[in-house]
């Protein structure tokens, strides 16, 4: 049986004595014994315990787990109906295949917070910090470095990970100063990742659990999703790495070529369907209720357990100081809730004393949440999403609408929208200061521009913009913008190449003209 005792026991043992004093209760987790046992091995310069054999990092951890196989995790998690009334007793094991509550509502993964509270905030901060930047399986992953808060009961050997997470929290110094008069602006580059988007954070959790279910002989022949590009890329990569079949349903001609080729290259079974994302989502829900195909979209609350670690990571990267604002582009609306949940857990477990205000940013062409917010959260109505350069969030009927509303209402959150011109300009402005962001990040940056102009976000507010995908996946939109090939768009920040004859004089003339317009510094 999986043991997160071993996960606690096997972290840098030299920290254990100093961490011990942080434990709140007199309960002694059974793993402490194993800490002592493992400590007889030699420790490398980083305090990692090393094996005398030539095991790879997965084998090394499996061997360690075998030696602690009698240990049972003191932590646990289960599915419960999302936002259930206190008197609800409905719950499911994470080893069940279930996506909806009895009433048809969303589910949530509920952790045993009382067990986690046996350790105080300082303990968790130090434990998580001790795992960053190491190769130790599976903690080298930014997701699995928080394993006790994610999937505490999974066996380390069942985990399918690319050491995702630990993404760059980039100080957007020049962008902040030049365009916003801000000096504490940060971009969390979740898109600089294994498959180029934040979806890796959730997919490692979901595919790991599928790996476990298949080893338990549960009826899972493959894993499937509907996608606007990034979920399918992540699903196919993680499944390919574990040897699990993946099936992806894509809206024909509505995702970028770079995104389309990802599942193809990773060996997924790709269905290109003449509908939009909402149509694909409807199909995959029907398919997964008929066939032994496990649903990988964020309707499945397992995904959000991985995605929430990006919020924890932001706090960690600020040395556990809480930013004032976090701005997240929203489509199917799982991620905004995942951020809320990550921040909320850190507050509940004493790692920080407050949570940031969240802003969810939508494309004006696909803005059901924005309209709902403007209507005072009354009577949600899905919309027919129109085409947008932010194609991964072209979603009119988001599955996680209830989760998003809950998150935003509980953090005094805001919803903003961006027109096509605004999002493309914002993306180009960010790129002109050295970034290379995706159009969805352009949507989030537009929200920031608007809230700064309205005086809602102050120049000194510490603000994080979540960048959700790698800009290289969306090169064609940048090519269109910089060649001013977009109808009815001024493309104010375009920077097209200058065509010059292969002639020294002609080149010099052009260069002198260019340099003449520049100040010496
Ligand atoms: C690049 C990118 N940004 C933002 C989002 C929005 O995330 P969510 O669907 O969780 O709201 C998605 C997917 O929907 C995406 O692929
Ligand atoms: N942008 C997503 C849309 C589906 O979102 P999910 O989080 O519910 O899987 C994608 O890339 O497919």
TrEMBL record:
Cofactors (names): pyridoxal 5'-phosphate
Task: Please provide, in alphabetical order, the Gene Ontology terms of the cellular component aspect for this entry.
Answer: chloroplast
Q: Where is the composition biased (Polar residues)?
A: 40-55
Q: Where in the cell is it found?
A: Plastid, Chloroplast
State the organism of origin. Capsella rubella
Pathway assignment reads: Amino-acid biosynthesis; L-threonine biosynthesis; L-threonine from L-aspartate: step 5/5
> CDD domains, from UniProt?
Thr-synth_1 (cd01563)
Q: What is this protein called?
A: threonine synthase
Residue ranges that the Swiss-Prot or TrEMBL entry lists as coiled coil: none
């Amino acid at each position: 049986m999986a043991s997160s005792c071993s996960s606690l026991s096997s972290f840098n043992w030299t920290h254990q004595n100093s961490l011990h004093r942080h434990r709140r209760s007199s309960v002694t987790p059974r793993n402490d014994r194993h800490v002592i046992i493992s400590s007889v091995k030699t420790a490398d310069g980083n305090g990692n315990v090393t094996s005398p054999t030539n095991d790879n990092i997965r084998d090394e951890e499996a061997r360690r787990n075998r030696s602690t196989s009698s240990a049972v995790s003191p932590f646990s998690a289960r599915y419960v109906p999302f936002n259930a009334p206190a008197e609800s007793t409905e719950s499911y094991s994470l080893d069940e295949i279930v996506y909806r509550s009895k009433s048809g509502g969303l589910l949530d993964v509920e952790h045993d917070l009382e067990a986690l509270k046996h350790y105080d905030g300082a303990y968790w901060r130090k434990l998580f910090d001790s795992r960053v930047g190491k190769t130790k399986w599976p903690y080298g992953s930014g997701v699995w470095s928080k394993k006790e808060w994610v999937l505490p009961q999974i066996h380390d050997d069942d985990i399918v990970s690319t050491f995702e997470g630990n993404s760059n929290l980039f100080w957007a110094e020049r962008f902040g100063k030049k365009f916003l008069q801000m000096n504490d602006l940060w971009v969390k580059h979740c898109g600089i990742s294994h498959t180029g988007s934040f979806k890796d954070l959730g997919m490692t959790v979901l595919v790991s659990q599928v790996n476990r279910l298949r080893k338990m002989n549960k009826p899972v022949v493959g894993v499937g999703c509907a996608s606007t590009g990034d979920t399918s890329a992540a699903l196919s990569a993680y499944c390919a790495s574990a040897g699990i079949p993946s099936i992806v349903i894509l809206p024909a001609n509505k995702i970028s070529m770079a995104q389309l080729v990802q599942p193809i290259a990773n060996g997924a079974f790709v269905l290109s369907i003449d509908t939009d994302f909402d149509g694909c989502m409807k199909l995959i829900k029907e398919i997964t209720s008929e066939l032994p195909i496990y649903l990988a979209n964020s309707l499945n609350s397992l995904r959000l357990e991985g995605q929430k670690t990006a919020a924890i990571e932001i706090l960690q990267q600020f040395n556990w100081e809480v930013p004032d604002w976090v701005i997240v582009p929203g489509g199917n609306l799982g991620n905004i809730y995942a951020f809320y949940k990550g921040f909320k857990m850190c507050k509940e477990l004493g790692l920080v004393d407050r949570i940031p205000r969240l802003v969810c940013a939508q494309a004006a062409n696909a803005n059901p949440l924005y309209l709902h917010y403007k209507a005072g959260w009354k009577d949600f109505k899905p919309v027919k999403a129109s085409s947008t350069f932010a194609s991964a969030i072209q979603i009119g009927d988001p599955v996680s609408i209830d989760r998003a509303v809950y998150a935003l209402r509980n953090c005094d959150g805001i919803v903003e929208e961006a027109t096509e011109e605004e999002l493309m300009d914002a993306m180009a402005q960010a790129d002109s200061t050295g970034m290379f962001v995706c159009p969805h990040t352009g949507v989030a940056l537009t929200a920031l521009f608007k809230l700064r102009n309205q005086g809602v976000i102050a120049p000194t507010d510490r603000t994080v913009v979540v960048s959700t995908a790698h800009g290289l996946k969306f090169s064609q939109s940048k090519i269109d913008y910089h060649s001013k090939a977009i109808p009815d768009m001024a493309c104010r920040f375009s920077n097209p190449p200058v065509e010059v004859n292969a002639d020294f004089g002609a080149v010099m003339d052009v260069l002198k003209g260019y340099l003449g317009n520049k100040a010496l510094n």
